[in-house]
Amino acid sequence: TYHIYNPQNVGWDLYAVSAYCSTWDGNKPLAWRRKYGWTAFCGPVGPRGRDSCGKCLRVTNTGTGAQTTVRIVDQCSNGGLDLDVNVFRQLDTDGRGNQRGHLIVNYEFVNCADNMYVLASPVDIE
């Protein structure tokens, strides 16, 4: 299913949407909060509650193969994912998810690569 977070309309503010993970991730840098689309997570496999906050999932529409990476910012109770509506639309490339009111997806936990920009400068060692 989908959730209308519309993070771009609230400055990617986790507090503004009352996201469960805002307690731990609400003050993360803007670049961190906007790097990936948002989702609530309550899937059958993986960490729950605080342990899931900030983790990333690669989500694949099983019908079309459309794929994207999302960040967990909230929890839910439907036994799956509540994707931000923008992410839902991105994955719903054939419109069937909108018709049914849900998508059938696979997900896997992936590295968010949040520390991939490590700056280093040359050092002269004698």
From TrEMBL:
Protein's name in the database: Hevein-1
UniProt KW Translocase keyword: no
Source organism superkingdom: Eukaryota
Domain Barwin: 1-114
Species the sequence originates in: Nicotiana attenuata (Coyote tobacco)
InterPro entries (UniProt xref): Barwin_CS, Barwin_dom, PR4, RlpA-like_sf
SUPFAM superfamilies reported in the protein's UniProt record: Barwin-like endoglucanases
Keywords per UniProt: Cell wall, Disulfide bond, Secreted, Signal
Any one of the GO BP annotations: defense response to bacterium
Annotated localization: Secreted, Cell wall
A GO term for molecular function: RNA nuclease activity
Matching Pfam families: Barwin
Entries under CDD domains matching the protein: DPBB_barwin-like (cd22777)
Main location as per UniProt: secreted
